[in-house]
Specification:
By secondary structure, the chain is an alpha+beta fold. It is built from 3 helices and 12 strands; from the N terminus they run αββαβββββαβββββ. It has a single domain, classed as tt1808, chain A, CATH 3.90.1570.10. The strands form 4 sheets. Strands 3-6-7-8-9-10 form a 6-stranded mixed β-sheet, sandwiched between helices. The protein has a two-stranded antiparallel sheet with strand order 1-2. The longest helix has 17 residues.
Length: about 180
């Protein structure tokens, strides 16, 4: 289901206003409208940092963004992935207000304790519809990482699950997970 252009434009205005609040909430636009997220916990933040460092070391020809808007106005979606990888040669062609999802090589989400359905259900559908070729879900609660590939517009045709401690193969990267923190 898509959100019409006028509704998306209004939701985007509201999202921009909300993100200016003193508590700086992360605001996304999903199928049902606005989605507000609380600040990440320490294990969540550390996991994102550890993964970002590995991605950057293995792909000097790409940039790894954190907490940056990515939107598909035609679908009426705006997401703020924990990490997204964009080839360096496409940086200058990006719109000013958000990254174009069609240019993104990989999106990484660290599962939130407070709203895991957002990463496991809603974002799978949205990232697939946006054409994101690789989606990595890292879950500090379960101690797993899931690599999703072959988007079909509603989900991903291929999923591979790894336990923490196993090297995770995702596209051109091989990520170590043994030192990733867990939720208590």
């Amino acid at each position: 289901m898509s959100i019409d252009a006028a509704t998306f434009a209004r939701l985007r205005e509201i999202a921009d206003e909300l993100s200016q609040l003193p508590m700086k909430p992360r605001v996304e636009i999903g199928r049902q409208g606005l989605v507000m997220m609380v600040s990440p916990t320490t294990p969540h933040g550390l996991t994102a940092i550890y993964l970002r460092r590995q991605l950057e070391q293995q792909a000097p020809d790409a940039l790894v963004f954190t907490d940056t808007d990515m939107q598909d106005a035609e679908l009426g979606r705006m997401r703020v992935p924990d990490l997204m990888v964009l080839p360096m040669d496409l940086i200058d062609s990006q719109p000013q207000d958000a990254v174009n999802p069609r240019d993104v090589e990989l999106v990484v989400e660290v599962v939130s304790r407070s709203n895991p359905e957002n990463d496991y259900r809603d974002k799978i559908a949205d990232y697939s519809a946006m054409g994101i070729p690789l989606y990595l879900i890292v879950d500090p609660g379960r101690g797993t990482a899931q690599v999703m590939s072959e988007p079909d517009g509603t989900g991903y045709g291929k999923t591979r699950t790894y336990d923490y401690g196993q090297p995770v193969s995702v596209g051109r990267w091989l990520l170590a997970t043994g030192d990733l923190p867990r939720y208590r």
